[in-house]
Structures are given as structure tokens and as C-alpha cells.
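ugh finaly. both done.
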Amino acid sequence: MERSVSDDLDESKENVLTDPPFYLPEFEESYRYIIDDYDVPPRDIAIFIPCAVRKPYSSSPSHRIMRKIIDDVLSPEQYHIVIFGTCGILPSELETMYPYAHYHYMLGKVKDQKIQEDFLRIETDRVAGYLKKTRDVYKRRIAYCIGPFRKAFIQGSERAGVQIDLILPSKDIIDKIMELDCPFQEGSLNMEEYLEEFHSGLMQIRDMK
């Protein structure tokens, strides 16, 4: 990759990446930078949330909602947001770094079984690598995710041997949503039932001793 990983949002829109990002060398190089060179800021609580279609992620409607809930419960010095999914896994403060703000891809629309399996394999490895790196950086960890992102995160946690204190939404709430008529089987993380449980979960993590 010829570009520096410090390149930011002035990248031309003509250069937006549209291939599956987990295959691209740009994302592997940036992931290695995070694992090998980046100093992750220590915080009491790590909050893992999925990537979003709109870039930078914090400008997306879903992330704005999640961040508002987080800020209602926690003070900034208590937590660190970490983004994961088709992008790999990265501290949220790096969201404008190339290539994370310069791709467009939706795994949910992909029907190719091999691509789905490759995503799960690659993302599991990347989640495990980050959790190993940050084993002593955080005191507690909470993840908010559904679908293949959730599966990759759980497998990554198991592979790293790093416990996640709370993974939301809970199976009971997911099962309830799956009974509804939603465009996606598990619905959206912006659904009221999920968001209410996320808020409660953050309070639970905050109050852990």
C-alpha cells in the first residue's frame, strides 16, 4: 500500500473502495499498524460496536444514537469505543484514517457463502488479535452487535482467551425481535427494544466492582 495510514478524509471520492474490505491489503496493513504500533488509551470500559455504511462512522445515524446513550450513562474518561466488522477492528479515534473512511460495502446484502465464511474467519482472527493486545488496557468490556459480527466477536473472544463481560442484545431480546416482520431476520440495532437493553447494560457495566 503506497498511501500512508495517516491519510484522512480529503481522499477523493473517486477512490472509494468497493471490494470486500476484509480481503484488501489496505485493511490488513492498517490492522497491523493498530496491533503492532498504536498505543491504545487505557480506559475502565471498552465498548465494541459495529461499523456503519456512512463514513466517518460517528456521523452515521446509528452511531449517533449509540453515542448519545453511552454519553447518558458514562463520562468520556470512563470508556473507549472500538469499531469492528467488515473493516476489521479499530479504536474509534482512528475512524478517519485511510482506508476506514474510504470504502463502501454491506455484508448483509452478500449471498455468496464463501465470502460470508471468509469474513467470519478473517474477522475472528482480527478481533482475537485486538483483544490479546488490549488484555490489560481495559477493566471491563461490553459488545453491542448482532448477526455475523456478533458471531465473529464471540469466536474472537474465545480464541483470545479474553472474557467479554456483557454481549448485547441478549438472546431473549433477539428471539423476540425475530418473531416480528423485519427486513432483516434480527432487525436493526436501532430498534427500541435493543437500545433500551443497551442502556441498561451500560449501567450494569458502569456499576460493576
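ok and the 2nd:
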Amino acid sequence: MSRAAAKKPVVRLAREQRVDEILVAARDVFCEKGYEASAVAEIAARMGVVEGTIYKYFASKRELLLKVLEHWYEEMFGDYARDLAGVSDARGRLRLLVWRHLRSIRDYPLLCRLMFREVRSEQDYRGSELHEMNRRYTQFLLEVIEAGVRGGEFRGDLPAALLRDLVYGGIEHGTWNYICGRGELDIDAMAEQLTAVLCEGIARTAEPGLKQEMERLSQIASRIEKALPKK
């Protein structure tokens, strides 16, 4: 093996380590000061390096913010597939996804605020790597709903994409005060409440014919009761 080939993995490892260090420092500064008030020079100072070192790895502060959020999404993906495999029923799987999303908000409220305020509304978001990661993230919920429909636990006449938007939109609205630093967030209670509301709304009801038959039998029973002599 040549000396150049032997050095390659070491160089790559050093670069990855430096990038990780920059992302950690940038996350801290962005969360403390917000995007607009954060300076690349301050991020560099946190690391004890000159500002030019940051620009060796990231072309701009905006690119750095996007990479910080992409790194966060990678952490959130975590062991989703493994955890979901351990839950058999659709309602339980739905609750797990809601709870884990709430946990990410509870643990990183300032990152959520950056995502909602600084990134998602901008023109460079749609079609970006971060947008694709968010799509993959919410796909877990779509798959759980669709599996619940196939298994007969959920109704099939409601668009899964609409239910996904109700879940994530509802969570964003319900946690906004917490994200902005006002109040507390009980993720267990909120996960239970959201799951109950959603599942009772999409739970499969009796077949129309069966429902009509039950109503007819109820009416017959009522007439018989009225016809019986009073005790």
C-alpha cells in the first residue's frame, strides 16, 4: 500500500470530526442567539479557531444552519424502524410516533423554532435535502395509518396525507408556546390525548347494513316495551 493511500482514511476521519465539531458549536450558538443574531465568528470562537476555518467546510451561515438541522433529523430517525417493529397494533404504533415527535420538541425546542421560522418558509427549502429528510420522517406516520387501514383498525375513506398533516400541524400548534419558552410540555399526556382524538376519529365503524339492522331492532324493542302492561 502506498503512503498516500494509507493517509486517506486518516484525512477523511479528521475532516468528519472537524465537521461534527462545527455542527455542535453552530447548534449551540444558533439555539442561544437565533439565526439572525448569530455570527460565524462566534461559532469559530467557541471552537477556538479562526473564522476562515468554518468557511473551509461551509460556504455560508445559511448552509451551516441547514446542515445543523439535517444532522438533527438524522438523530431523530434513530431506531424508529426497530421501535415500531416491537409494537403490533396500529394505535400503539401511532402513539409511539406522536410521543417521539413530542419528545424531540421537548428536548430541542429552539431547533424546532429555527426550523419553523428560519427554514421551512424560505424558497430554498422545497426540494432541498432537508425537505426530503422531513418527507422521509413523516412517511413513518403515513405507513402506520395505511397499515391500520389494511388491517381493518382504521377507516379507509380518509386521505392518509390529511391525517398526517392533522397530526404534525396539531402538534406544532399545541406546542408553540413551549417552543417560544412559555409554559411546560407534558409529552405523555399530550401523546395520549392526540392519539385518542385521532383514533376515535378514524376508528372503523360498523358496516352500514349492520348499523341499520341494529337501529331497526332497537326500534322494535322500544315498541314492544311500550306495548307491555305497566307493573
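summary for the 2nd one i guess: The radius of gyration is 26 Å.
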